[in-house]
Amino acid sequence: MVRVNEIEARNYVTKSKLPGTDYVINPYVGCPHKCIYCYAEFMKKFSNHQEEWGDFLDVKRCTTPIKVDKLTGKSIVISSVTDPYNPYEKRYMITRSILEQLAETDADIGIITKSHLVVRDVDILKKLSNCHVAMSMCSTDEAFRAEVEPFASSYENRVKALKRLHDEGIRTVLFMSPIFPGITDFVEIIDRTRDYVDSYWFENLKLKACCRYRVRNYIRKRHRMLEPLYQDIYDLKDFGYWSGLKEQIETYCVENSIDYRLYFGDDVKEIDC
User: Fold this and answer.
1) How many Cα atoms sit within 13 Å of 11 on the Cβ side?
2) Does residue 268 lie within any of the structural domains?
3) pLDDT in tens, the chain (273 residues)
4) Are 30 and 84 in contact (CB under 8 A)?
5) 211-225 b/e with 16+ CB inside 10 Å = b?
6) For residue 224, which of 39, 100, 124, 184 sits 20 to 30 Å off, Cα-Cα?
7) With contact defined as beta carbons under 8 Å apart, do 156 and 194 qualify?
8) In this structure, what are the phi and psi dihedrals at residue 61, rounded to the nearest 5 degrees?
9) Nearest Cα to Cα of residue 67 among 25, 27, 101, 108
């Protein structure tokens, strides 16, 4: 059971350390989706929670209005260490209240989520002059999703959300993240979503210390035949698989006139969370 607590925040908007992004907004602390590969567990260092990551959620309340005049021409990501449309957003509507304020700015706003709840706010998203929604998916297999993203929206509902957003004239991105070696089929995902997606982003699976055991244990138990591949990549630091996959993605996207971005990194070493 998720322990939900409301906390007071001084400001929703913080300066970003993400490349190419000026500001980031995280309406919540924590995320109840419980994805086994989640890197955001490091946030416990700052929040002092004793619960397991995924078992708590802090709802940020901020009475200070967003200074939208300072956001002109800037880029904003919603969100980097939570899902702005986690299931509790349906009740608390923090993300919606933030978007209502941002409707007054021309900032480049990017929303990253794996929830179909985002379609609830189509009315506001259409008012934003420069906005895109990036829907995360790493497979089309619902059984796999239930194991690695147990409390996130089904892939079917995510695809339906992309279609609705696209039909409403909102720019859509499919963020293929993280790509699981030997499991994620990028061609299959593109084939299923091509009609509703304006751009594809690709990010490989990086294992921080906090999620390394969970992911490797899952592969060992559920995809034993792939264990040698994961040993090569994450133990022996052999990046040949990523290099080859990167070339395949680039070739496929160019040949099929697909707009794409690659967020591949060879830094798959164990990092303390």
Assistant:
1) 8
2) no
3) 899 999 999 999 999 998 899 999 999 999 999 999 999 998 888 888 999 999 999 999 999 999 999 999 999 999 999 999 999 999 999 999 999 999 989 999 999 999 999 999 999 999 999 999 999 999 999 999 999 999 999 999 999 999 999 999 999 999 999 999 999 999 999 999 999 999 999 999 999 888 999 999 999 999 999 999 999 999 999 999 999 999 999 999 999 999 999 999 754 444 343
4) no
5) bbebbbeebeeebee
6) 39
7) no
8) -115, 125
9) 101
Burial class (CB in 10 A: 0-12, 13-18, 19+), 185: middle
Nearest to 36, CA basis, from 124, 176, 152: 152
Q: Which residues form the domain of 248?
A: 3-263
Can you tell me the distance from the alpha carbon of 109 to that of 167, in angstroms, rounded to the nearest whole number? 19
8 A C-beta contact, residue 27 and residue 12: yes
Look up the pTM and report it.
0.95
**Two tokens at 233?**
């990549």
Closest to 216 (Cα-Cα) out of 207, 204, 243, 137: 207
Domains held by the chain: number = 1
Q: Show the tokens assigned to 262.
A: 């690659």
271 assigned to some structural domain: no
Sheet holding 28-29, edge to edge: 3-8, 56-61, 28-29
